[in-house]
């Protein structure tokens, strides 16, 4: 994101950030938590929404709904325990909402649900993909993952060894999930503390991501779909090798233009901001520029996904970042391939390459 682009966004809280295990009230009844992540993207924003829910005896209970949970690790659990002691005003957690199944969002959902006997709310697609990922020892890695990256031109043995060694990677970051859940679906209206929150489905970043919009508060909990400084990773994975996630992501972004331009956006990474419409246009332009860069490079040679990494990423990538980068590169190539701007062929070395379409 350029400095000029960032000046079009406004950060109502300026540089204020919640400290470890601290909460900041964004608007009445909505609290912001920020927890550390052990990745290059080093934090996640979590949200507490003041709520009241009817118990099994028809009585209203006062408490909180949690939106997103952080990864399953001791540091995050310790921070949550401090929040339970100091940030809940003596009230319980009544419900756990997860925007999508990536480990930084769903990681402690099962732990929180068991800790508070609270139900999990999530889209059906993300719940079931998460259950499969928990059971599959090669999810997001293993031999099948390494074979997939090799098919797309990645021959760096250090990286491939890293991928092969990622067995049980997902389950190492996610606590066991509840065996039952409440389904979030596009257009569903949730009553949270007497206010209506509308579910907005988004695709491309996750199987069925759910953002939450409260018209009364003019507030959008955007998850990873709309971030202020970066674009969410959009990847093709070995489990769905013929996917076109960038098309899905860009189409999903367009839907947020129906919300008011002055919507207050609470993202999963970065600071709360206003300037939703400007940010959506920036994200769409960013991807169109990267697509144009790939088309320009394809005039000189047929490209595999590994060839496009220096086109899309100007910084040095570590092995962890490389998995996201390869998926992102392939997502851009697939967008052009599905749009018939590029054609795909396998070369003599068994690598899939994309070249300018002859049609």
UniProtKB/TrEMBL annotation:
Keywords: Hydrolase
Domain Metallo-beta-lactamase: 43-269
Listed PANTHER family: ENDORIBONUCLEASE LACTB2, METALLO-BETA-LACTAMASE SUPERFAMILY POTEIN
Pfam families: B_lactamase-like_C, Lactamase_B
SUPFAM superfamilies noted in UniProt: Metallo-hydrolase/oxidoreductase
InterPro entries assigned to the protein according to its UniProt record, in alphabetical order: B_lactamase-like_C, Metallo-B-lactamas, RibonucZ/Hydroxyglut_hydro, Sec-metab_biosynth-thioest, WH-like_DNA-bd_sf
Record GO terms (molecular function): hydrolase activity
Domain of life: Bacteria
Record protein name field: MBL fold metallo-hydrolase
EC number: 3.-.-.-
